[in-house]
Amino acid sequence: MNVKSALPQSHIDALASLGLELAAAGRVQILKHYRREFTIEDKPDLTPVTIADRNAEAAIRKIISQKQPNHGVMGEEYGNDRTDAEFVWVLDPIDGTKSFMTGKPLFGCLIALCQWGRPILGVMDMPALDEVWLGGQGLPATLNGRPVRVRNCSALDQAVVYATTPDMFLGPDQLAFARVKNRVKYILYGADCYGYATVAAGWADAVVEASLKPYDYLACAAVVTAAGGYAADWNGKPLTLASADKVVMSGSVEMGQIIVKTLQS
User: Does the reported pTM lie above 0.90?
Assistant: First the structure.
């Protein structure tokens, strides 16, 4: 089915309002523990998790089950539920748990809504910064309600590019990323999901990342594309629930295509 089949604007607006409600519920749980003492556990994949991650996702799932019981959910902490449904919420309660647990304010609560697997709504809530980024199909990209727009940079040697860490590029991905890193003007690390926000706002030109899950990037993709940007995997294909672990997002389509070609060359 075609995800572009038009939803009524009233439906889009209602879903956006729900997305903001979900983010607000997650923020309450997250800020209860930010820069306070809490236990840090290691998950089976050795990534950290805290009570804030779990409580935020639980609070968000509760509202979804109450208000949209027919919608599916994919979440980092509590797994998948009815992901074959037409509408699926994709949740990363704290993207950047390592930042959160060390007091760094660049972590975010990422909430995407997919229709038939493709993101149509994204909320990127930055609790410590008091910033809410929103965008999607039929919606402008906004920061705290103010429109944002990507900038148009089409020269790789003039581009400012983010990645969370060089350690996310493994095996052949290291060489592919190095081809991009060695051609851009600046490569910056350590922003977690906020790197995508900088692209949506026109402050940076691209994000190139690997070793991700759909909940790490689908909300960001909805916001960046709503701001006029480009979002794809390393093969240049649009991002969906079924996409793999490697993504490119950029302010201009031309920049995104240049980066994809450089990664593949």
Answer: yes
